[in-house]
Amino acid sequence: SKPFVAIVGRPNVGKSTLLNGLAQRRVSIVEDIPGVTRDRIYCNVRWLDKEFTMIDTGGIEFRNKADQIVDGIREQAELAMEEADVILFVVDARAGITKDDMTIANMLRRTGKPVVVAVNKVDSENLEMEVYEFYSLGLGDPIGISAVNHLGFGDLLDKITEGF
Ligand code: GDP
Ligand code: MG
């Protein structure tokens, strides 16, 4: 079967926008657990001669209380750890590195799985310098993208599919 790529990251960094931008075809929406909004969205993505399935675990991260946001992020990362061949960690160039980004980065590093860092919302050239800050996550070369404008997708897909 096709390799799995899981998208993780805190709310509002642009995970869903990115998934929609990369997807050729939405495969399915599964699991709506009562009390927990947990729609897991699977998409097929083709890049050159490669194909993979991308999972957006995004629905689980939104809670009212601050402590539950952290729980949601952890749950998301755990799902990614179990199932993913590659983890796509999305961060926000406009926001810079936040405490939650660091928490997620630490969890992802412990998985031992390949992690690709996508620095989203790099919509213009003057935001390109902001990408370098994200080297300090300790997860390799961050790739600047704009999910809205479909910028940087080629470099991102090259990196994601490197080992496929
Ligand atoms: P998610 O919570 O991580 O799934 O984030 P969403 O995909 O729902 O996006 C959150 C907000 O960020 C929305 O208002 C998007 O329009 C916006 N957004 C997503 N990608 C970009 C981008 O590349 N540039 C800018 N400027 N905004 C973006
Ligand atoms: Mg989302």
Distance between the termini: 12 Å
* Ligand list: guanosine-5'-diphosphate, magnesium ion
What is the class in the CATH system? Alpha Beta
Order of helices and strands: EHEEEHEHEEH
Percent of residues in beta strands?
25-35%
**Average predicted local confidence, pLDDT:** 82
CATH H-level superfamily? P-loop containing nucleotide triphosphate hydrolases
The number of helical elements comes to 4
Write a structural description.
The chain has helices at 15-22, 66-83, 99-111, 153-160, and strands at 4-8, 25-30, 40-47, 50-56, 86-92, 115-120, 143-144. Helix 2 runs parallel beside helix 3 (99-111). The model is unreliable at 28-38 and 59-64 (pLDDT under 50). The protein starts with a strand and ends with a helix. With 164 residues, it is an alpha/beta fold. It is built from 4 helices and 7 strands; from the N terminus they run E-H-E-E-E-H-E-H-E-E-H. The chain has a single domain (4-160), classed as Rossmann fold, CATH 3.40.50.300. A 7-stranded mixed β-sheet has the order 2-3-4-1-5-6-7, sandwiched between helices. The protein binds guanosine-5'-diphosphate (GDP) and magnesium ion (MG). Magnesium ion is lined by residues 15-16, 58. GTP 1 binds at residues 9-16, 56-60, 120-123. Belongs to the TRAFAC class TrmE-Era-EngA-EngB-Septin-like GTPase superfamily. EngA (Der) GTPase family. This is GTPase Der. Associates with the 50S ribosomal subunit.
